[in-house]
Specification:
alpha+beta, 2 domains, 8-stranded mixed beta sheet, 6-stranded mixed beta sheet, 503 residues
Length: 503
Protein backbone atom coordinates (compact mmCIF):
# COMPACT_ATOMS: atom_id res chain seq x y z
CA UNK A 1 0.00 0.00 0.00
CA UNK A 2 1.48 3.33 -1.05
CA UNK A 3 2.05 6.02 1.56
CA UNK A 4 -0.66 8.65 1.16
CA UNK A 5 0.75 11.19 3.57
CA UNK A 6 1.24 14.72 2.31
CA UNK A 7 4.60 15.07 0.55
CA UNK A 8 7.14 17.19 2.39
CA UNK A 9 8.52 20.24 0.59
CA UNK A 10 11.49 19.76 -1.68
CA UNK A 11 14.81 20.23 0.04
CA UNK A 12 16.60 23.37 -1.16
CA UNK A 13 20.13 23.26 -2.45
CA UNK A 14 22.27 23.32 0.66
CA UNK A 15 25.21 25.76 0.69
CA UNK A 16 28.49 24.13 -0.26
CA UNK A 17 31.48 24.37 2.10
CA UNK A 18 33.46 25.89 -0.77
CA UNK A 19 32.60 28.78 -3.12
CA UNK A 20 30.02 27.81 -5.79
CA UNK A 21 32.34 29.24 -8.43
CA UNK A 22 34.32 26.03 -8.17
CA UNK A 23 31.41 24.01 -9.60
CA UNK A 24 32.21 22.13 -12.81
CA UNK A 25 28.96 21.35 -14.67
CA UNK A 26 30.45 18.32 -16.41
CA UNK A 27 31.68 16.59 -13.26
CA UNK A 28 34.76 16.57 -11.12
CA UNK A 29 36.09 19.74 -9.52
CA UNK A 30 38.51 22.43 -10.63
CA UNK A 31 40.60 22.90 -7.51
CA UNK A 32 42.95 20.14 -6.39
CA UNK A 33 43.14 21.47 -2.83
CA UNK A 34 39.53 20.56 -1.97
CA UNK A 35 39.40 17.77 0.61
CA UNK A 36 37.32 14.72 -0.38
CA UNK A 37 33.92 14.35 1.27
CA UNK A 38 33.36 10.90 2.77
CA UNK A 39 30.15 9.76 4.46
CA UNK A 40 29.30 6.48 6.19
CA UNK A 41 25.65 6.70 5.12
CA UNK A 42 24.21 5.50 1.80
CA UNK A 43 24.29 7.92 -1.15
CA UNK A 44 21.18 10.04 -1.74
CA UNK A 45 19.84 9.56 -5.25
CA UNK A 46 17.88 11.88 -7.58
CA UNK A 47 15.94 10.04 -10.30
CA UNK A 48 14.68 12.15 -13.21
CA UNK A 49 11.84 10.39 -15.02
CA UNK A 50 8.90 8.41 -13.63
CA UNK A 51 8.73 5.89 -16.47
CA UNK A 52 9.27 2.16 -16.03
CA UNK A 53 13.04 2.46 -15.56
CA UNK A 54 12.76 5.25 -12.96
CA UNK A 55 9.94 3.58 -11.04
CA UNK A 56 11.64 0.19 -10.96
CA UNK A 57 14.88 1.75 -9.78
CA UNK A 58 12.94 3.59 -7.09
CA UNK A 59 11.31 0.35 -5.93
CA UNK A 60 14.71 -1.37 -5.81
CA UNK A 61 16.28 1.46 -3.82
CA UNK A 62 13.28 1.44 -1.47
CA UNK A 63 13.97 -2.24 -0.80
CA UNK A 64 17.71 -1.63 -0.37
CA UNK A 65 17.17 1.25 2.07
CA UNK A 66 18.90 3.80 -0.19
CA UNK A 67 17.36 7.32 -0.04
CA UNK A 68 15.90 8.54 -3.35
CA UNK A 69 13.43 10.94 -4.90
CA UNK A 70 11.78 10.75 -8.33
CA UNK A 71 11.05 13.85 -10.44
CA UNK A 72 8.74 13.83 -13.47
CA UNK A 73 8.30 16.75 -15.88
CA UNK A 74 4.57 16.24 -16.56
CA UNK A 75 1.64 16.37 -14.16
CA UNK A 76 0.41 12.91 -15.14
CA UNK A 77 1.98 10.14 -17.20
CA UNK A 78 -0.28 8.40 -19.70
CA UNK A 79 1.49 5.21 -20.85
CA UNK A 80 0.98 4.04 -24.41
CA UNK A 81 -2.02 1.77 -24.69
CA UNK A 82 -0.22 -0.95 -26.62
CA UNK A 83 0.93 -4.39 -25.55
CA UNK A 84 4.01 -5.24 -23.49
CA UNK A 85 5.77 -8.56 -23.08
CA UNK A 86 8.15 -9.59 -20.32
CA UNK A 87 10.39 -12.63 -20.30
CA UNK A 88 12.52 -14.53 -17.81
CA UNK A 89 15.33 -11.96 -18.13
CA UNK A 90 13.40 -9.59 -15.84
CA UNK A 91 10.64 -11.81 -14.44
CA UNK A 92 13.19 -13.45 -12.13
CA UNK A 93 13.71 -10.01 -10.57
CA UNK A 94 9.93 -9.53 -10.27
CA UNK A 95 9.73 -12.87 -8.48
CA UNK A 96 12.57 -11.85 -6.18
CA UNK A 97 10.84 -8.52 -5.43
CA UNK A 98 7.53 -10.24 -4.61
CA UNK A 99 5.50 -8.65 -7.44
CA UNK A 100 5.53 -11.51 -9.94
CA UNK A 101 2.12 -12.88 -8.95
CA UNK A 102 0.55 -9.42 -9.23
CA UNK A 103 1.79 -9.15 -12.81
CA UNK A 104 0.52 -12.64 -13.66
CA UNK A 105 -3.00 -11.59 -12.60
CA UNK A 106 -3.16 -8.86 -15.27
CA UNK A 107 -1.37 -10.88 -17.98
CA UNK A 108 -1.86 -13.68 -20.45
CA UNK A 109 0.92 -16.12 -21.32
CA UNK A 110 2.01 -16.30 -24.95
CA UNK A 111 2.56 -19.88 -26.04
CA UNK A 112 2.96 -19.24 -29.76
CA UNK A 113 2.70 -16.69 -32.57
CA UNK A 114 1.31 -17.02 -36.07
CA UNK A 115 2.44 -15.13 -39.17
CA UNK A 116 -0.03 -14.28 -41.94
CA UNK A 117 0.11 -12.65 -45.34
CA UNK A 118 -2.03 -9.60 -46.11
CA UNK A 119 -4.70 -12.03 -47.40
CA UNK A 120 -4.68 -14.06 -44.15
CA UNK A 121 -2.68 -16.94 -45.59
CA UNK A 122 -0.77 -18.60 -42.76
CA UNK A 123 2.96 -18.35 -43.51
CA UNK A 124 4.61 -19.50 -40.26
CA UNK A 125 3.89 -20.66 -36.74
CA UNK A 126 6.39 -20.24 -33.90
CA UNK A 127 6.13 -21.84 -30.47
CA UNK A 128 7.49 -20.18 -27.33
CA UNK A 129 10.01 -22.35 -25.50
CA UNK A 130 8.97 -21.60 -21.90
CA UNK A 131 10.28 -24.96 -20.67
CA UNK A 132 13.73 -23.67 -21.62
CA UNK A 133 13.45 -20.34 -19.84
CA UNK A 134 11.32 -21.54 -16.92
CA UNK A 135 9.02 -18.53 -17.29
CA UNK A 136 6.02 -18.05 -19.51
CA UNK A 137 6.25 -14.98 -21.73
CA UNK A 138 3.64 -12.63 -20.24
CA UNK A 139 1.61 -10.19 -22.34
CA UNK A 140 -0.42 -7.31 -20.93
CA UNK A 141 -1.42 -3.72 -21.61
CA UNK A 142 1.46 -1.36 -20.83
CA UNK A 143 -0.53 0.75 -18.30
CA UNK A 144 -1.03 -2.36 -16.15
CA UNK A 145 2.69 -2.61 -15.37
CA UNK A 146 3.09 1.14 -14.99
CA UNK A 147 0.27 1.36 -12.44
CA UNK A 148 1.59 -1.66 -10.55
CA UNK A 149 5.00 -0.02 -10.05
CA UNK A 150 3.74 3.53 -9.53
CA UNK A 151 1.42 2.49 -6.71
CA UNK A 152 4.28 0.85 -4.81
CA UNK A 153 6.35 4.03 -4.57
CA UNK A 154 5.58 6.16 -1.47
CA UNK A 155 3.73 9.22 -2.77
CA UNK A 156 6.01 11.70 -1.02
CA UNK A 157 8.96 10.36 -3.04
CA UNK A 158 7.44 11.16 -6.44
CA UNK A 159 7.33 14.83 -7.50
CA UNK A 160 5.26 15.56 -10.62
CA UNK A 161 5.39 18.70 -12.80
CA UNK A 162 9.12 19.07 -12.09
CA UNK A 163 10.83 19.92 -15.37
CA UNK A 164 14.62 19.96 -15.13
CA UNK A 165 16.26 23.06 -16.61
CA UNK A 166 19.88 22.26 -15.76
CA UNK A 167 22.14 20.58 -13.26
CA UNK A 168 25.60 21.09 -11.82
CA UNK A 169 27.91 18.59 -10.20
CA UNK A 170 31.25 18.65 -8.41
CA UNK A 171 33.12 16.56 -5.85
CA UNK A 172 30.61 17.58 -3.16
CA UNK A 173 27.32 16.73 -4.85
CA UNK A 174 24.90 17.33 -7.71
CA UNK A 175 22.28 20.07 -7.90
CA UNK A 176 19.11 19.98 -10.02
CA UNK A 177 17.43 23.21 -11.04
CA UNK A 178 13.76 23.07 -12.08
CA UNK A 179 11.58 25.32 -14.20
CA UNK A 180 9.64 26.45 -11.10
CA UNK A 181 12.86 28.01 -9.73
CA UNK A 182 13.37 25.34 -7.06
CA UNK A 183 16.59 23.37 -6.61
CA UNK A 184 17.60 20.18 -4.87
CA UNK A 185 21.03 18.85 -3.91
CA UNK A 186 21.99 15.19 -3.44
CA UNK A 187 24.83 12.74 -4.17
CA UNK A 188 23.89 11.03 -7.47
CA UNK A 189 21.74 11.99 -10.48
CA UNK A 190 20.04 9.27 -12.56
CA UNK A 191 18.67 10.23 -15.97
CA UNK A 192 15.72 7.87 -16.53
CA UNK A 193 13.82 10.40 -18.63
CA UNK A 194 13.46 8.54 -21.90
CA UNK A 195 14.74 8.69 -25.46
CA UNK A 196 14.75 12.49 -25.56
CA UNK A 197 16.33 12.78 -22.13
CA UNK A 198 16.84 16.30 -20.82
CA UNK A 199 19.54 15.01 -18.46
CA UNK A 200 21.44 13.47 -21.38
CA UNK A 201 21.01 16.60 -23.49
CA UNK A 202 22.42 18.88 -20.79
CA UNK A 203 25.26 16.49 -19.93
CA UNK A 204 26.25 15.96 -23.58
CA UNK A 205 26.16 19.69 -24.32
CA UNK A 206 28.61 20.36 -21.50
CA UNK A 207 30.88 17.47 -22.44
CA UNK A 208 30.83 18.49 -26.11
CA UNK A 209 31.85 22.04 -25.24
CA UNK A 210 34.82 20.59 -23.37
CA UNK A 211 35.75 18.20 -26.19
CA UNK A 212 34.91 15.15 -24.07
CA UNK A 213 31.92 13.77 -26.02
CA UNK A 214 32.52 10.91 -28.51
CA UNK A 215 31.56 11.85 -32.06
CA UNK A 216 29.02 9.03 -32.22
CA UNK A 217 27.02 10.58 -29.38
CA UNK A 218 26.48 13.78 -31.40
CA UNK A 219 24.42 12.02 -34.08
CA UNK A 220 20.64 12.07 -34.29
CA UNK A 221 18.67 8.94 -33.50
CA UNK A 222 17.65 6.70 -36.38
CA UNK A 223 13.97 6.89 -37.32
CA UNK A 224 12.98 4.05 -39.65
CA UNK A 225 9.41 3.19 -38.69
CA UNK A 226 6.21 4.89 -37.57
CA UNK A 227 3.56 3.07 -35.59
CA UNK A 228 -0.01 3.38 -34.37
CA UNK A 229 -0.82 1.46 -31.21
CA UNK A 230 -4.02 1.02 -29.25
CA UNK A 231 -6.06 -1.17 -26.90
CA UNK A 232 -9.74 -1.82 -27.46
CA UNK A 233 -12.54 -1.64 -24.97
CA UNK A 234 -13.83 -5.05 -23.78
CA UNK A 235 -15.27 -7.07 -26.66
CA UNK A 236 -17.87 -9.84 -26.55
CA UNK A 237 -16.24 -13.32 -26.54
CA UNK A 238 -19.65 -14.81 -27.29
CA UNK A 239 -19.43 -13.24 -30.73
CA UNK A 240 -17.96 -15.83 -33.08
CA UNK A 241 -15.01 -13.79 -34.33
CA UNK A 242 -13.95 -12.85 -30.79
CA UNK A 243 -14.34 -16.29 -29.21
CA UNK A 244 -10.60 -16.77 -28.61
CA UNK A 245 -10.58 -13.75 -26.24
CA UNK A 246 -11.70 -16.15 -23.51
CA UNK A 247 -8.71 -18.46 -24.03
CA UNK A 248 -6.18 -18.81 -21.23
CA UNK A 249 -3.26 -17.89 -23.49
CA UNK A 250 -2.77 -14.81 -25.64
CA UNK A 251 -3.38 -15.11 -29.37
CA UNK A 252 -0.49 -13.34 -31.12
CA UNK A 253 -0.89 -12.66 -34.84
CA UNK A 254 1.56 -10.91 -37.19
CA UNK A 255 0.34 -9.73 -40.57
CA UNK A 256 2.79 -8.67 -43.30
CA UNK A 257 1.65 -6.42 -46.14
CA UNK A 258 2.31 -7.34 -49.76
CA UNK A 259 4.65 -5.56 -52.18
CA UNK A 260 2.25 -2.65 -52.62
CA UNK A 261 1.94 -1.78 -48.91
CA UNK A 262 4.91 -1.20 -46.56
CA UNK A 263 2.75 -2.06 -43.53
CA UNK A 264 2.81 -4.75 -40.86
CA UNK A 265 0.04 -5.11 -38.30
CA UNK A 266 -0.22 -7.19 -35.15
CA UNK A 267 -2.96 -8.20 -32.71
CA UNK A 268 -2.60 -9.64 -29.21
CA UNK A 269 -5.37 -10.71 -26.83
CA UNK A 270 -5.01 -9.61 -23.20
CA UNK A 271 -7.13 -10.00 -20.04
CA UNK A 272 -10.47 -8.21 -19.91
CA UNK A 273 -11.55 -9.48 -23.35
CA UNK A 274 -9.44 -6.79 -25.01
CA UNK A 275 -7.19 -6.67 -28.05
CA UNK A 276 -3.95 -4.73 -28.23
CA UNK A 277 -3.08 -3.80 -31.81
CA UNK A 278 -0.17 -2.24 -33.59
CA UNK A 279 0.36 -0.99 -37.15
CA UNK A 280 3.96 -0.40 -38.27
CA UNK A 281 4.87 1.62 -41.36
CA UNK A 282 8.33 1.45 -42.94
CA UNK A 283 8.97 5.13 -43.53
CA UNK A 284 11.45 4.95 -46.39
CA UNK A 285 8.91 3.06 -48.49
CA UNK A 286 5.74 4.85 -47.35
CA UNK A 287 3.83 7.49 -49.29
CA UNK A 288 3.38 9.85 -46.34
CA UNK A 289 3.70 13.62 -46.47
CA UNK A 290 6.47 15.49 -44.67
CA UNK A 291 4.14 16.86 -42.00
CA UNK A 292 3.29 13.35 -40.89
CA UNK A 293 6.97 12.54 -40.61
CA UNK A 294 7.60 15.56 -38.40
CA UNK A 295 4.51 15.31 -36.20
CA UNK A 296 5.47 13.07 -33.27
CA UNK A 297 2.29 13.43 -31.18
CA UNK A 298 -1.25 12.43 -31.96
CA UNK A 299 -2.73 14.97 -34.36
CA UNK A 300 -6.05 13.98 -35.98
CA UNK A 301 -5.62 16.26 -38.98
CA UNK A 302 -2.44 14.44 -40.05
CA UNK A 303 -3.27 10.88 -39.00
CA UNK A 304 -6.88 10.25 -39.97
CA UNK A 305 -5.72 9.67 -43.54
CA UNK A 306 -3.49 6.77 -42.44
CA UNK A 307 -6.15 5.26 -40.15
CA UNK A 308 -8.59 5.36 -43.07
CA UNK A 309 -6.00 3.67 -45.27
CA UNK A 310 -5.61 0.70 -42.92
CA UNK A 311 -9.31 0.10 -42.24
CA UNK A 312 -9.66 -2.74 -44.74
CA UNK A 313 -6.55 -4.60 -43.63
CA UNK A 314 -7.54 -8.19 -42.81
CA UNK A 315 -7.17 -9.74 -39.36
CA UNK A 316 -8.47 -12.93 -37.77
CA UNK A 317 -11.12 -10.71 -36.12
CA UNK A 318 -12.37 -9.12 -39.31
CA UNK A 319 -11.32 -5.77 -40.82
CA UNK A 320 -8.73 -3.86 -38.79
CA UNK A 321 -11.07 -0.86 -38.95
CA UNK A 322 -13.49 -2.66 -36.61
CA UNK A 323 -10.74 -3.02 -34.01
CA UNK A 324 -9.74 0.62 -34.42
CA UNK A 325 -13.38 1.67 -33.98
CA UNK A 326 -13.53 -0.34 -30.73
CA UNK A 327 -10.59 1.69 -29.42
CA UNK A 328 -11.25 5.10 -27.83
CA UNK A 329 -9.34 7.79 -29.70
CA UNK A 330 -7.47 8.79 -26.54
CA UNK A 331 -6.09 5.22 -26.37
CA UNK A 332 -4.57 5.44 -29.85
CA UNK A 333 -1.01 6.73 -29.98
CA UNK A 334 1.37 7.46 -32.82
CA UNK A 335 5.03 6.77 -32.10
CA UNK A 336 8.24 6.67 -34.09
CA UNK A 337 10.45 3.63 -33.69
CA UNK A 338 13.71 5.46 -33.05
CA UNK A 339 16.92 3.72 -32.12
CA UNK A 340 20.36 4.71 -30.88
CA UNK A 341 23.05 3.12 -28.73
CA UNK A 342 24.90 5.90 -26.93
CA UNK A 343 28.51 5.46 -25.80
CA UNK A 344 28.45 7.85 -22.85
CA UNK A 345 26.28 6.58 -20.01
CA UNK A 346 27.97 8.20 -17.05
CA UNK A 347 30.17 11.12 -16.09
CA UNK A 348 30.98 12.38 -12.63
CA UNK A 349 27.94 11.82 -10.42
CA UNK A 350 25.51 11.45 -13.34
CA UNK A 351 24.33 8.22 -14.94
CA UNK A 352 21.81 7.33 -17.69
CA UNK A 353 19.52 4.29 -17.75
CA UNK A 354 16.86 2.89 -20.08
CA UNK A 355 16.00 4.77 -23.26
CA UNK A 356 18.16 7.69 -22.14
CA UNK A 357 21.21 5.45 -22.64
CA UNK A 358 20.02 3.07 -25.35
CA UNK A 359 16.87 3.34 -27.48
CA UNK A 360 16.17 -0.15 -28.81
CA UNK A 361 13.67 -1.01 -31.54
CA UNK A 362 10.58 -2.74 -30.07
CA UNK A 363 10.81 -5.63 -32.53
CA UNK A 364 12.13 -8.00 -29.86
CA UNK A 365 10.04 -6.63 -27.00
CA UNK A 366 13.24 -5.97 -25.06
CA UNK A 367 13.21 -2.17 -24.69
CA UNK A 368 11.41 -2.06 -21.35
CA UNK A 369 13.11 -5.28 -20.24
CA UNK A 370 16.56 -3.76 -20.75
CA UNK A 371 15.50 -0.54 -19.02
CA UNK A 372 14.46 -2.44 -15.90
CA UNK A 373 17.56 -4.66 -16.03
CA UNK A 374 19.56 -1.42 -16.03
CA UNK A 375 17.76 -0.54 -12.81
CA UNK A 376 18.64 -3.89 -11.23
CA UNK A 377 22.34 -3.65 -12.06
CA UNK A 378 22.57 0.03 -11.11
CA UNK A 379 20.83 -0.63 -7.77
CA UNK A 380 23.42 -3.34 -7.05
CA UNK A 381 26.26 -0.92 -7.84
CA UNK A 382 24.73 1.82 -5.67
CA UNK A 383 24.29 -0.65 -2.81
CA UNK A 384 28.01 -1.43 -2.97
CA UNK A 385 29.01 2.22 -2.42
CA UNK A 386 30.50 2.25 1.05
CA UNK A 387 31.63 4.68 2.23
CA UNK A 388 29.94 7.35 0.10
CA UNK A 389 32.65 9.39 -1.59
CA UNK A 390 33.09 11.02 -4.98
CA UNK A 391 35.63 8.42 -6.11
CA UNK A 392 33.47 5.50 -4.94
CA UNK A 393 30.44 6.98 -6.74
CA UNK A 394 32.35 7.37 -10.01
CA UNK A 395 33.67 3.82 -9.71
CA UNK A 396 30.19 2.40 -9.04
CA UNK A 397 28.60 4.20 -12.00
CA UNK A 398 31.43 3.07 -14.25
CA UNK A 399 30.96 -0.50 -13.02
CA UNK A 400 27.27 -0.33 -13.95
CA UNK A 401 28.11 0.75 -17.49
CA UNK A 402 30.78 -1.95 -17.81
CA UNK A 403 28.36 -4.68 -16.69
CA UNK A 404 25.57 -3.60 -19.02
CA UNK A 405 27.06 -2.24 -22.23
CA UNK A 406 28.02 -5.41 -24.11
CA UNK A 407 24.70 -7.12 -23.34
CA UNK A 408 22.75 -4.06 -24.50
CA UNK A 409 24.92 -3.84 -27.62
CA UNK A 410 24.00 -7.42 -28.51
CA UNK A 411 20.29 -6.72 -27.87
CA UNK A 412 20.50 -3.59 -30.02
CA UNK A 413 21.85 -5.58 -32.98
CA UNK A 414 19.26 -8.32 -32.40
CA UNK A 415 16.43 -5.76 -32.49
CA UNK A 416 17.60 -4.59 -35.93
CA UNK A 417 17.60 -8.12 -37.29
CA UNK A 418 14.16 -8.82 -35.85
CA UNK A 419 12.80 -5.54 -37.27
CA UNK A 420 13.71 -6.78 -40.74
CA UNK A 421 11.89 -10.02 -39.93
CA UNK A 422 8.74 -8.39 -38.52
CA UNK A 423 8.44 -5.05 -40.32
CA UNK A 424 10.76 -5.07 -43.34
CA UNK A 425 9.41 -4.72 -46.89
CA UNK A 426 12.46 -4.26 -49.12
CA UNK A 427 13.25 -7.15 -51.45
CA UNK A 428 16.17 -8.31 -49.28
CA UNK A 429 14.05 -8.10 -46.11
CA UNK A 430 11.31 -10.21 -47.70
CA UNK A 431 13.88 -12.82 -48.74
CA UNK A 432 15.38 -12.74 -45.24
CA UNK A 433 11.95 -13.25 -43.65
CA UNK A 434 11.14 -16.18 -45.95
CA UNK A 435 14.45 -17.89 -45.17
CA UNK A 436 14.12 -17.44 -41.39
CA UNK A 437 10.49 -18.53 -41.16
CA UNK A 438 10.72 -21.43 -43.59
CA UNK A 439 14.29 -22.74 -43.62
CA UNK A 440 15.77 -22.06 -40.18
CA UNK A 441 15.79 -25.29 -38.13
CA UNK A 442 13.83 -25.25 -34.88
CA UNK A 443 16.98 -26.32 -33.04
CA UNK A 444 18.73 -23.09 -34.06
CA UNK A 445 15.82 -21.01 -32.78
CA UNK A 446 15.83 -22.89 -29.45
CA UNK A 447 19.58 -22.34 -29.15
CA UNK A 448 19.09 -18.59 -29.58
CA UNK A 449 16.29 -18.56 -26.98
CA UNK A 450 18.56 -20.38 -24.50
CA UNK A 451 21.32 -17.84 -25.14
CA UNK A 452 18.99 -14.83 -24.78
CA UNK A 453 17.40 -16.11 -21.57
CA UNK A 454 20.71 -16.82 -19.83
CA UNK A 455 21.22 -13.20 -18.75
CA UNK A 456 19.07 -12.70 -15.64
CA UNK A 457 20.52 -10.22 -13.14
CA UNK A 458 18.92 -10.10 -9.70
CA UNK A 459 19.32 -7.86 -6.67
CA UNK A 460 22.39 -8.82 -4.65
CA UNK A 461 20.86 -7.40 -1.48
CA UNK A 462 17.84 -9.76 -1.53
CA UNK A 463 17.49 -13.55 -1.34
CA UNK A 464 17.87 -14.95 -4.85
CA UNK A 465 14.86 -16.26 -6.75
CA UNK A 466 15.22 -19.95 -7.69
CA UNK A 467 16.73 -20.80 -11.05
CA UNK A 468 13.99 -21.94 -13.42
CA UNK A 469 14.09 -23.73 -16.74
CA UNK A 470 16.67 -26.07 -18.17
CA UNK A 471 18.78 -23.37 -19.79
CA UNK A 472 22.02 -22.10 -18.34
CA UNK A 473 22.02 -18.84 -16.37
CA UNK A 474 25.01 -16.49 -16.53
CA UNK A 475 26.56 -15.83 -13.13
CA UNK A 476 26.34 -12.17 -12.17
CA UNK A 477 28.95 -10.09 -10.43
CA UNK A 478 28.69 -10.59 -6.66
CA UNK A 479 28.30 -7.72 -4.20
CA UNK A 480 31.66 -6.40 -3.00
CA UNK A 481 29.93 -4.89 0.02
CA UNK A 482 28.41 -8.20 1.08
CA UNK A 483 31.71 -9.97 0.50
CA UNK A 484 33.53 -7.52 2.76
CA UNK A 485 30.82 -7.78 5.41
CA UNK A 486 31.06 -11.59 5.36
CA UNK A 487 34.83 -11.43 5.66
CA UNK A 488 34.52 -9.03 8.61
CA UNK A 489 31.97 -11.33 10.28
CA UNK A 490 34.27 -14.32 9.76
CA UNK A 491 37.23 -12.45 11.25
CA UNK A 492 35.09 -11.33 14.18
CA UNK A 493 33.91 -14.89 14.80
CA UNK A 494 37.51 -16.11 14.57
CA UNK A 495 38.65 -13.54 17.16
CA UNK A 496 35.82 -14.59 19.50
CA UNK A 497 36.85 -18.24 19.11
CA UNK A 498 40.50 -17.46 19.82
CA UNK A 499 39.56 -15.45 22.90
CA UNK A 500 37.35 -18.26 24.18
CA UNK A 501 40.12 -20.79 23.72
CA UNK A 502 42.61 -18.50 25.49
CA UNK A 503 40.29 -18.28 28.50
Amino acid sequence: MADTTKPPPLSPFSPLPHPPTKLNPAGGYKSSDLPPLVKDESPKVLIVGAGLAGLYLGLLLETAGIPYEIFERVAEIKPLGGVMALSGNILCSFEQMGIFDELVRVSKPAYDATYYSAELKKTAHICVQDEVTGYKRLLFARPELYNLLFNKIPTHKIHMSKKVLSFQQNHEGVMLRFSDNTTVHRDILVGADGAHSGVRKHLYKTLDEQGLLPKGDTKNMNKGYMSFVGTTLPLDPNEERYKDLAAEGSRCSFHIGDNSMPFAWMTYTIPGNRICWNVVIQLKLADIDEEQFRQSDWAPETNVKILDQIREFKTTYGPLGDIVDATPRERISKVFFEDMLFETWTHGRTVLIGDAAHKILPSTGQGAVNAMIDSVVLANCLYDIKPTSYENIKAALGDYREQRFENVKAQYAHSHRNAKLSYGHTLWERIFRYMILNWLPQSVMVKQIVKDSAYRPQSNFLPQAPQRGRGLVISQKPSTRLQKEREEEEKKAERVTISAVAL
